[in-house]
Amino acid sequence: MRVIAQQMVRPAQYVALAGYIIFLGFPLLWLLSASVKSSGELNSLVVNLLPQEWHWENYSEALARQGLVRSSANSAIVALASTALVILVALPASYVLARLKGAIRAAGVGWILVSQVFPVILVILPLFLILRTIGLTDSLVGLTLVHTTYTLPFALWMLQGYVAAIPVELEEAGSMDGGSRLVVLRRIVFPLLAPGVVATAMFSFVSSWNEFFFALVLLQSPENYTLPITLSTFIGGEGKVALGPLAAGSVLAAIPSIVFFSIMQKKLTGGLMAGAVKG
Amino acid sequence: MTVLASPRPPSTPRSGRRRGPTGMDRARRREAAALVMPSLLPILVLSVAPLLMGVLLAFTDAELVRRPDYQFVGVDNFVRLAGNSFFWDSFRIGMVWAVSVTLLQLVAALGLALLLNSGLRLQGLTRVLALIPWAMPPVVVAIMWKMIYSPNAGPLNAFLGSVGLPDDINWLADFSTALPAVIVVGVWVGMPQTTVTLLAGLQQIPQELHEAAAMDGAGAWRRFWAVTLPSLRPIVTSITSLNFIWNFNSFSLVYVLTEGGPGGRTMLPMLFTYLEAFKNRNIGYAAAMGVVLVVVVVLLLALYLRSQFRDDRAEKTKKEG
Known about the structure:
The structure holds two protein chains of two kinds.
Chain A: H1 2-34, H2 39-43, H3 57-64, H4 66-99, H5 103-115, H6 120-133, H7 140-164, H8 168-176, H9 181-192, H10 194-210, H11 213-218, H12 227-235, H13 243-269, H14 272-278
Helix pairs in contact in A: 3-13, 4-7, 4-10, 4-12, 5-7, 7-10, 8-9, 10-13, 12-13
Chain B: H1 2-5, H2 13-16, H3 23-57, H4 76-82, H5 85-116, H6 123-135, H7 138-149, H8 155-162, H9 178-204, H10 207-215, H11 220-248, H12 252-257, H13 269-278, H14 283-320
């Protein structure tokens, strides 16, 4: 009895694994397949995963849409600017967070944890009023500031982890040789942090690139829309867009994040989040 | 080598700086403040201040108009809210959504993490697939699943039809299927974090524990309940708490999938509050909703964590006793 049960375990495991692979992967395959199907085929009742003919024109059609190119550019501007800002302000602060102990550190770490569960819906109302007072609603500058602020906590958390991994002895050696704190930071700490900075920058870029809620509330005129907002208007009541180009646009919108995650795959599975969760 | 020989305080941080404020310390503190300030400023102005203002707004009759002119109305908003059955309907839907997505996520992710931890082939592929939902923009996820659920040309109905089941279900527009359908998408999106976290936890369980249990004659099933699950307990507690809050606060996915429809069947509280604020333009009232949501979630979480800690302690005393 026991032996039979054990022989059954492996196949059962593979069946379960196949189930997961289908559940996780099929929607992606379907999106890819829709992005190369002609609209005739997409609307027909014959449903196949592989297109009858490859209709690459969806991609050029998607790119030809004025809104899509413009909003991709907007998304890229906001994502790049907020990434630069995040790194600029988070780098020194993460150093302090990692090296100094006491009240600042406790408050900083506490805030990072709280920010993970932040009730954005409560924050957005006054935030909207504040930004309107200084004329930054419906503006990419305002959106950049907001994205920067809300990416900062996690970016600080990532970066301080990388700082903590640099032995203090290295810095002490630097200051023994007569370097001031800033020189030590610039000459010794920051160069060693390069991989951490790259990872954090990619994270900030993707967070901003994917972000929907703040953009939805803050941006009003279509020429300021970011990519997620434009894509969402395509499927809403406003415009019935052909499914093929919509799928193609969606694939294009997902590329930056997927590139990032394939690069970061090892790190992420290595338990970046696990560390963050355990505090 | 001179460095190591030189006299300096031990670098273990806790004993390092506990000698009263010398001039050196004060300079260092000022330096630290200067380094932290650029991060602190935007956080204070664009996130702490708005949060506090949001709480204050809840006690006003503020409206979203060009020249806001509003006054404190005490707890009026909250009184009005208590009798607003639409809000509480939406609240109930939010709880159903958050609890079911969180639980299903946990079960599905635990299953996947166990599979990934048991040395099967196809691991690399599965790992990548398990991470992709995390990376996708929520809007793209919603568009993708809308295609899957499409009543006429969607693969789901086509599949059901091919095995002889009804193939004309309008998943996202039918009163009875809309909420379950968006819950499935919620699970799909949220699985990666949970899987990765649980997998990291599984890999930390010492192999000896399993071996010892196997020696005692425990089968795989018993080992899971007696060794794996108890060791994962702290991680499960923290990831479910976080997932619950994330899910309760979620907005974009369902907004794009259904906009709260059909007939409000998927009207999550965040959507409801958003519409009250930016379509009906009652931001004071909406802020009151936000406050109620935050307070309830914090209370629920406190209860959950307390019960977890109590169980923990009970377990410990049982073991010691």
